[in-house]
Amino acid sequence: MTQLQTMLAETPFVSYSYAYPHKSAYRPFASPLPLREIWESEDRTDLSLYVHLPFCEYRCGFCNLFTLSNPQTDLATQYLQQLRVEARQVRDQLPDFHFSQLAIGGGTPTYLEPDELAQLFEILQQELHTSPEQIPASIEGSPATLTAEKVTLIRAQGVDRISLGIQSFDEQEALHLGRPQKRKEILQALDLVRSAGFPTLNLDLIYGADGQTAASFLNSLQQALAFRPEEIYLYPLYVRPLTGLGRKQQQWDDHRLTLYRAGRDFLLEHGYAQHSLRMFRLEDSTQPHDTQYCCQTDGMIGLGCGARSYTSRTHYSSEFAVGRSSVAAIIAHYLEQEPESFASVDYGFQLNCDEQRRRFLILSLLQTTGLSRDFYADTFGADVLDHFPALEELAEHGLARITADTIILTSTGLERSDTIGPWLYSEQVLQCMETFQCQ
């Protein structure tokens, strides 16, 4: 059996390939790399800016994000002060950047108090000369942390997309996910968001919770559609180290696949177009901004502890952890850093030519638009099948359609995205991920 055949015979849910390589493949660099050196040969005209706020009101049972729940009272204030220091250093080192989009994530950015949120936007404007009014800007939030004052402030700043982690409208299912939220709380938050007039509302829902059925999952989707969100993300429940949830395998895998198909079909029937395994967008909705940012080729600057940055050759961030004490220690180290330390980076992954091609391939192929063979050839100087002849096997298994112009996953291939992505990982990345000690 080939490696793909072996993987297809096992779980469809191997790993979410939202980025490549995953941060568990990052390691300390032999010596610190100056920011100017990393970025000197990069096109800095269309960058993405990501700001990480690693705080939440509580940690959900499935969460393996870099975040600290219920931190000490003044920690957010200290964090914002250091975020300003970091932003100033980035500006000084890379004065000719231009951002095409902004994302504020975490954690839960709306955990911040209104005055802290206002300070965050002030930092972006004063230190990076970046305003959400000028570029597509998104912020993540949770129903428990939203208030009318926060929603009004965020919208007034020009943020045009807000993403809420709902996960389930069923209170019992939410409890099984380690998420003690109330349905009333969700509805109040959604009313606030819709009243504020955000052009794009995204809702995240999870399938695979204990006791969840196709009927209960569709009921959550039906309740979500009452607010006509422009985007919906459907996430399979993953159980990862240090997240507190334990699971049996095969029956659970079959159940998740059944729920995915039910949710997918429901959304397609109600006017949503599928863009990836997880993302669905309302077909008659419009984008508030026309952005030229392309995740396959353009870079990203991340600010804050836990934020990922990347150029074509170098990906970097702070160290990664999940356990509370380890996350707290990494944040404490971030707060203690001297300003000049932000002028260089010491932890990440350097991509050789093969890794750059794999990243481009994975980020393209796992979208419903697929991979443009001309775009790939223009970027890397050869046809993708010359570099990755094993892709032919996807077509042999009915997982992709290969034409002279594109390679596009079929519906069967799309639902195996979390298998196909890891199948394309290099041996070096896989080895680093397997030996990573999650703390």
From TrEMBL:
Q: Which GO terms describe its cellular component?
A: cytoplasm
GO BP: any one term: porphyrin-containing compound biosynthetic process
Keyword Zinc set for record: no
Tell me which species this is from.
Gimesia panareensis
The organism's taxonomy opens as:
Bacteria, Pseudomonadati, Planctomycetota, Planctomycetia, Planctomycetales
Which coenzymes or cofactors are required? [4Fe-4S] cluster
Name residues in a coiled coil.
Answer: none
Q: What is this protein called?
A: Oxygen-independent coproporphyrinogen-III oxidase 1
One Pfam family matching this protein = HemN_C
**SMART domains per record:** Elp3
NCBIfam families, per database record: PRK08208.1
Q: What are the protein's UniProt keywords?
A: Iron, Iron-sulfur, Metal-binding, Oxidoreductase, S-adenosyl-L-methionine
Q: Which PROSITE patterns match?
A: RADICAL_SAM
**Its EC number(s):** 1.3.98.3
Please state every residue range assigned to the domain named Radical SAM core: 41-278
Which domain of life does the protein's organism represent?
Bacteria
Which GO-annotated molecular functions does the record name?
A: 4 iron, 4 sulfur cluster binding; coproporphyrinogen dehydrogenase activity; metal ion binding
Gene (UniProt): hemN_1
